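Write out a sequence, fold above all:
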Amino acid sequence: MSRLLLFNKPYGVLSQFTPEAGRPGLAGFIPVPGVYAAGRLDADSEGLLLLTDDGGLQKRIADPRHKLPKTYWVQVEGEPGEAALQQLRQGVDLGDFVTRPCDVARMAEPIELWPRDPPIRQRKNIPTAWLEIVLREGKNRQVRRMTAKAGYPTLRLIRAAIGPFSVAGLRPGEWREAKPTLP
């Protein structure tokens, strides 16, 4: 039977088991042998990381051809208007590729949000806003590059869900096992 673990990756932790360059890896949090991350999450991003011992399931989760939606909560500097949100929705030319259309909406600060350590840098005279962005692809630093291109740099990035799996109920550094079923 395949195993699937849902892990709330804290800020600063690598999406690999081996620590590197002073940053902790997954081994300090997940004492389960034989599981590997299905996809990655940058060290400076937080939230849901799925791990499995099933290579086929790992590929199904991580491969953009399967179009498994990935939901992100993104705190940006500034307050994007409808034109900026529409630019993000229809796809952004990042130079090396154009992002696929995605779902983007303004949202209130998530109720279940945990404090980040270290806290984000906030500037007194510049407001921030929260966006929910749902992608069906996942290139390196894509969300950060998209919001920056639209003129609203990302301050905090949290992956809230991958397909039917959610970070809900998990504090940073916590994990739980889930049924490995996908639509």
Observations:
- Strands lie at 4-9, 36-37, 46-52, 70-77, 103-107, 128-135, 154-162, 165-166, 175-178.
- Residues 4-64+164-171 form a domain with the Alpha-Beta Plaits fold (CATH 3.30.70.580).
- The chain has a mean pLDDT of 93.
